[in-house]
Amino acid sequence: MKKILILAAVSATFASAAHAQSSVTLYGVVDAGFTYVQNEVSPGNSPKHAASFGVTSGNASGSRWGMRGREDLGGGYAAIFTLENGFNVANGTTGQGNRSFGRQAFVGVSSSYGTLTLGRQYDSMVDYIGPLTATGSWGGVYLAHRGDNDNANASMRINNSVKYQSANYDGFSFSGLYGFSNQAGAFANDRAYSAAMGYSNGGLKLAAGYRQVQGVGGNASGAVQDGAPNIGVAGERQRQRQRTWGAGGSYAFGPASVGLVYTQSRFNFIANDASVRYSNYEVNAHYNLTPALSFGAAYTYMQALQNTPGVSNGSSHWNQIGLQADYALSRRTDLYLEGVAQVGAKGNKIGSQVFGTDAPSSGRSQGLVTTGIRHRF
Which residues form the Porin domain (predicted)? Predict the structure, then answer.
């Protein structure tokens, strides 16, 4: 009997050790609230001033659920995976084109030398530049730059991608990604690649990055299948090339942080050899008044230069400001109130539209107010 008890104890010990070497974590965010939007173009009618008010999902954070897994392979190596689904909590539908795991789906290996992953992933600019912007940190979808032209809100993911993320070398790190076209005889038709680097030391964070996508919309199995950002140009879904670069920094001191980001996006279209260049200048700040109550503010000046040979040329300008108040009911649940206003210059070639709203403005400006509850698990 004594030998049986000893054997059972040893078996339990090995089982616990094996379990500790492998783990799967379920996580997610559920975000829902009420949103009021002014100056939307009414569907089916000539443009006129119209307002909408309704229940919306993913205002401060995109609603999602996912699984992360890790298995110790020995020698400092580990197998990892992430499967993440996006959904609309207001109506229960799946996001990202009805994909089962449309936000992220990848598998790979991590070690002290870095991490190598394959699948549907965020590009390197999203990883490094996004967190320095208001939309990629505390602000949520509505504070994205016009049409999310620089993908700071991560509305575009890269399919068929291989990504390397370096280890941290005294605060310095870097990343590179390549998304394959997966098309026979057309290696460059709808492919994508990006690279970025960053430095972090105490409260200081600095980052710079570049991304290029070729042949968007011309390959049903290509690297970019999320649809092109709505940058307000006719025929924009068929693109010859899309290039984006950016740099920025932030500094945290005590309960406050400030950030400054610049991004530029260039779009070349198949039709008419047209092109559009967006420049985005953002300054943002965040302050924790108490452990539970925080405030955020962001201002962005956006400019678009449009060129269609033999048809039209011109520039458009917008000023956008966003304010947010957030109150934590617990470590996982909070309430938020946010307002965003975007004002376009007189004579703009491209209209105003706060990113995430259902329709462009019927005039030069568009504003919204949203409030809701967010729960993390």
Answer: 8-338
pTM comes to 0.90
Give the chain's domain count.
1
Within 13 Å, how many C-alpha atoms sit on residue 231's CB side?
31
CATH number (domain holding residue 115): 2.40.160.10
pLDDT digits (tens, 9 = 90+) for 31-68: 999 999 999 987 765 556 789 999 999 999 999 999 99
* CB of 317 closer than 8 Å to CB of 280: no
Whole-angstrom distance, CA of residue 329 vs CA of residue 166: 37
pLDDT in tens, 322-375: 999 999 999 999 999 999 999 999 999 899 999 999 999 989 999 999 999 999
Q: Which domain holds residue 361?
A: 22-376
Q: What percentage of the chain exceeds 70 in pLDDT?
A: 88
Residue 32 lies in a domain: yes
The burial class, CB within 10 Å (0-12 / 13-18 / 19+), for 202 is: exposed
- Do the domain assignments include residue 340? yes
